[in-house]
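Septin: structure, please.
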Amino acid sequence: MEQSESYAILDINICDKDSEKTDNNDNKKKTPLTTVIKIQRERGERDYIGFATLPEQVHRKSVKRGFDFTLMVVGESGLGKSTLINSLFLGDLYKNRKLSDVQDRIEKTTTIEKKTMEIEERGVKLRLTIVDTPGFGDAINCEDSWRVCSAYVDEQFRQYFTDESGLNRRHMQDNRVHCCLYFVPPWAHSLRQVDLEMMRRLHRKVNIVVVIAKADSLTAAEVKRLKTRILNDLEEHQIQVYQFPECDSDEDEEFKQQDRELKAAAPFAVVASDTVLEVGGKRVRGRQYPWGIVDVENPRHSDFTKLRTMLISTHMQDLKDVTQDVHYENFRAQCISQISQHAMRERGKLKRDSMGNNTDVVFTDTDRLLLQKDEEIRRMQDMLTQMQEKLKASDKKHDSIIDV
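Here you go.
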């Protein structure tokens, strides 16, 4: 008896209390421990829905589709734009380029030159498009150098808006300019008039990142002084360059420190080189001078590494997001507003024509109110056009002399 009672007590202890059942004879039926564990395991599996794999699904789909990035480089000839692009993306996009003669630059105008290359790194594909602007700042009269660049950015927005409004949107190609590297010569004491005019026309359409070219021709004190003057000029003329987003509070300290360093380095003073040299047993990209070697990836010599980190490693997606959410949305809102105004004018014209052809047409109060609103909008548009013409005339008076 004693053995059976101890066995019963032990059996009750290892059974789940919720699993005890009572039959008609008030005898307790006990569920074995293995069955209880199996039931609990099944309950746990039912609690796991599976949406935690969504990031992996998005990652696989994005990698399969690939990424697009368009970079515009603006600056006069001889500032090392081609060398910088080749150094950033470890390629040679300008192997067949021919330099123009001095005589050709007298009447040379700004043109657009596109180059596209496919880059793959660790299974991730990037379709990189470089939009170069040869001829910018090379002519004697640089008054209209900004027109070609601004027209190109608008044309890409317009094409994307047309594709987005069409029926077949599955294979849309994003050729919008996501970033503009604007090169400032090192011999300038601040931003020139042509620089200010160009940035003023583009800063609401594209993300502008200012780059001080050939920084190895300046001392550390001169670089610091030039950066301060550029920032002051941008603030004085209310030109908005690309603003780094704020770090989230849950980011690690290393990422926050890197973000602070990138923000403090802008505008970036860079030295570029596609020549590999051997220094102290290591192969580095640099420039050989009689007094030593400039290592372009050394942060004490150049901001090249910081520019590459910002442009490719940390903020490439944010540049695309700002282009989509800010610059393109502004352009899209303007297009929709123009379309709606045109539709209202056409509707008012049809009503006026019908009223002129048929004197017996009866207009409701709503129709009369719409006609009054159309007339009011037309008067406001005429006033706005006159104000814009006056502003353009005043701008031409103030900007008649351009410092080249």
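Notes: The mean pLDDT is 78.
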